[in-house]
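User: Here's a structure from my thesis project, written as structure tokens. My advisor, Dr. K., wants to see whether a designed sequence matches the one we expressed. Can you design one independently, without my sequence as a hint?
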């Protein structure tokens, strides 16, 4: 059926999508996308969609089943020529399939960072990474809005990937994200984007249809618009290529195991009944692979690409109490209390410069990954006191991660509580300089 006059356009557009603010559109997308992460998708459906867009059986077997959720419109890793030691960022990383495939190519000396707006999807991807034994800094998943500045250092990434995501952003979001891609790429870096592109101008009844928007249709822009946005973002027109992959988008609307035919990208948003579009999707939009190269010569890898290393880990939920230096000193000097107290220095490189005597060194940068072992060592210790230089960042964060871990174990499984040394080692050294029973230097 031609889509020039979709028979149910009035009902489908009744959501009032055309008047929906950008923040609300992102909110609807986040809700629908998070639902997919929590509820999953039929394995046969996910596999058929992945294979339709170029993933091989070998690739699918190499990743956890939950890493691909029928959300792709291409296979960007296959075309990205990722090399050993490169840093790769995936925008809208979902369950993690493209990051896991990229990480394999980048090897142990490379980095693969997935960004996604959905906390549920980030949690799923981190769970999948754990199944594969992958962890930061080699593989990291970070929650981030793609319509805002990305938490990535400038000129730090060799290759940026994205798979069926940019079409979902409001127009101004597309503008922002493409500029951000150019900003984070190294000179000589490249981006490979698989996305849905409009074959011709979309009629108003499709553009105003929220379900069609969620289904990666209504937000699609024309090929020439895409080229223009890439040029405005800083990419030279001679270094941009858009290729129609000629894939059949009707694969999204098949009925598979445990899967109601809904859309390519997400389930229907709350309050809207999922349904197959009443127009020919292939007539209006197509799956494109988009290549762009940033001008300049390739540079060496910077020490890090993530703006904040702790973004690769869960946000702290608890708020451990602070103990003053005087209170901690009293515990250290009390023979009985000291046996039931552990003091943890979470600084990585400056422990030797002076530390609380008897403190244990567990670096904050790897602490979250080490929590199971840390818990086993200290779960019967009543007071576990953390500190860093001033106890404003690493110390409270590590204490919070430990307390969150304790809370998840349930009552009766331990007798431990996390605390923070107020003022950190800086204040401790100032207060107790010369008191060798309180200060040690390696």
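Assistant: Designed independently from the structure alone:
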């Amino acid at each position: 059926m031609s889509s020039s006059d979709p028979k149910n356009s009035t009902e489908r557009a009744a959501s009032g999508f055309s008047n929906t603010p950008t923040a609300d559109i992102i909110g609807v997308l986040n809700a629908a996308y998070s639902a997919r992460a929590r509820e999953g998708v039929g394995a046969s459906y996910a596999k058929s969609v992945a294979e339709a867009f170029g993933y091989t059986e070998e690739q699918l077997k190499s990743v956890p089943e939950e890493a691909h959720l029928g959300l792709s419109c291409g296979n960007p890793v296959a075309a990205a020529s990722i090399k050993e030691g490169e840093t790769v960022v995936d925008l809208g990383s979902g369950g993690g399939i493209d990051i896991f495939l990229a990480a394999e190519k980048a090897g142990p000396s490379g980095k693969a960072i997935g960004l996604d707006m959905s906390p549920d999807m980030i949690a799923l991807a981190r769970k999948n990474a754990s199944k594969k034994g992958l962890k930061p800094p080699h593989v990291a998943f970070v929650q981030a809005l793609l319509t805002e500045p990305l938490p990535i250092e400038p000129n730090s990434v060799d290759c940026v990937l994205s798979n069926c995501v940019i079409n979902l952003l409001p127009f101004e979001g597309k503008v922002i994200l493409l500029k951000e891609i150019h900003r984070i790429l190294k000179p000589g870096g490249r981006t490979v984007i698989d996305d849905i592109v409009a074959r011709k101008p979309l009629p108003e009844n499709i553009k105003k249809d929220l379900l069609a928007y969620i289904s990666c249709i209504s937000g699609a822009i024309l090929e020439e618009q895409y080229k223009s946005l890439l040029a405005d973002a800083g990419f030279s027109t001679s270094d941009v290529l858009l290729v129609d992959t000629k894939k059949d988008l009707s694969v999204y609307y098949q009925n598979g195991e445990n899967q109601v035919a809904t859309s390519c990208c997400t389930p229907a948003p709350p309050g809207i009944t999922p349904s197959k579009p009443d127009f020919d999707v292939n007539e209006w939009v197509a799956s494109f692979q988009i290549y762009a190269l940033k001008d300049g010569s390739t540079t060496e890898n910077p020490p890090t690409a993530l703006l904040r290393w702790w973004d690769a880990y869960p946000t702290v939920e608890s708020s451990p109490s602070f103990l003053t230096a005087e209170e901690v000193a009293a515990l250290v000097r009390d023979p009985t209390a000291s046996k039931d107290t552990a003091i943890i220095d979470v600084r990585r490189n400056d422990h030797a410069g002076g530390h609380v005597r008897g403190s244990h060194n567990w670096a904050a940068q790897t602490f979250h990954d080490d929590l199971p072992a840390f818990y086993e060592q200290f779960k019967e210790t009543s007071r576990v006191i953390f500190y860093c230089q001033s106890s404003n960042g690493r110390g409270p964060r590590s204490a919070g991660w430990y307390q969150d871990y304790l809370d998840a174990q349930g009552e009766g499984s331990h007798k431990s509580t996390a605390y923070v040394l107020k003022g950190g080692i800086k204040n401790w050294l100032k207060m107790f300089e010369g008191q060798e029973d309180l200060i040690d230097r390696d």
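When you compare it with your expressed construct, this may help: Residues 30 and 424 are 39 Å apart (CA to CA).
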